[in-house]
Design goal:
Blueprint (H helix, E strand, L loop, with lengths): L1 H16 L4 H4 L17 H16 L5 H29 L16
Helix pairs in contact: 1-3, 3-4
């Protein structure tokens, strides 16, 4: 989850740094279909949730604190992922890949 999160963030970061024009650096661009961006609108959010699920799993599913952290992470990131997906569809229209999911590849 951690490596997926870093990789997804790096793809988005490069979209802004591959320009010499400051105005162009502030323009949103569609991330290329690399890594989890092939299937998800905001893969860094899903990866973060996967990280905390892994932490809860590492406790043997016994830590109520780890479970609570996972739940609060999901409560924060799922609405953000939904909002990003919806905005992307509205902003770019048909130019945005129709096969990108909100939070879970091939499901939602």
């Amino acid at each position: 989850g951690f490596l997926l999160n870093i990789h997804s963030d790096e793809i988005v970061r490069r979209l802004r740094h591959n320009t010499n024009n400051k105005e162009e650096a502030n323009v949103y661009k569609i991330p290329p279909a690399i890594g989890l961006h092939k299937w998800l609108c905001s893969p860094n959010y899903s990866s973060e949730a996967f990280e905390w699920f892994g932490f809860w799993m590492a406790t043997g599913f016994a830590s109520s604190g780890a479970l609570a952290y996972l739940i609060w992470t999901l409560a924060n990131l799922v609405p953000q992922a939904w909002s990003n997906w919806k905005w992307s569809k509205e902003h770019w229209g048909d130019a945005y890949p129709s096969d990108r999911y909100v939070f879970i590849p091939f499901i939602w």
